[in-house]
């Protein structure tokens, strides 16, 4: 497997982890009633984005097709599907039991987004494993 795909997997995995930190910090801030965890997570995210755009080798690497493709897959796993699934679970729970507060809905989304990120990592590992097996069979 070319190095760019390994970098793409690593970049998408770390980007997903950064966004999960932001999601969980928002949940923690809502629970504590204090904005400091969210501000710290956003500062970390902003610093990472700034370094990514200023450091030329990283900027060139992140423009490649495979990185954009992996990031799109990552967004599907940690944002699009978790929003839909958390919405369905939340509506179902509210219809059967009791209404959820905003903090509880956010916590439900965070749990589903974290599970989606873990599924993304397992998917990347399975793709890597199948590619390694195919390479060994060809050699």
Layout of helices and strands, plus pairs?
Elements: H1 3-32, H2 36-54, H3 56-62, H4 65-96, H5 102-138
Helix pairs in contact: 1-2, 1-4, 1-5, 2-3, 4-5
Helix content range of the residues, please?
A: over 70%
Q: How much of the residues is beta strand, in percent?
A: under 5%
Total strands: the figure is 0
Q: Which spans have pLDDT < 50 for at least 5 consecutive residues? A: none
- Write down the overall geometry: flat
Mean pLDDT: 87
How is the biggest beta sheet arranged? Answer: none
- The helix count comes to 5
What Rg, in angstroms, do the CA atoms define?
Answer: 18 Å
Instruction: Give the oligomeric state of the chains in this entry, treating copies of one chain as homo and distinct chains as hetero.
Output: single chain
Please state the structural category.
mainly alpha
Distance between the termini: 13 Å
* N-to-C series of helices and strands: HHHHH
Model description:
There is one protein chain. This protein is mostly helical and 139 residues long. The chain is 90% helix and 0% strand. It has 5 helices and no strands. Helix 1 packs antiparallel against helix 2 and helix 1 runs parallel beside helix 4. The longest helix is centred in the last third of the chain and has 37 residues. The chain starts with a helix and ends with a helix.
């Amino acid at each position: 497997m070319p190095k760019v795909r390994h970098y793409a997997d690593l970049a998408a995995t770390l980007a997903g982890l950064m966004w999960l930190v932001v999601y969980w910090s928002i949940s923690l801030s809502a629970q504590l009633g204090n904005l400091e965890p969210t501000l710290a997570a956003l500062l970390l995210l902003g610093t990472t984005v700034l370094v990514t755009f200023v450091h030329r080798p990283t900027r060139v690497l992140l423009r490649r097709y495979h990185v954009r493709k992996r990031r799109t897959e990552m967004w599907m796993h940690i944002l699009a599907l978790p929003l839909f699934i958390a919405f369905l679970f939340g509506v179902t729970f509210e219809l059967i039991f009791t209404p959820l507060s905003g903090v509880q809905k956010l916590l439900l989304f965070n749990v589903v987004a974290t599970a989606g990120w873990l599924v993304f990592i397992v998917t990347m590992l399975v793709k890597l494993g199948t590619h390694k097996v195919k390479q060994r069979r060809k050699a």
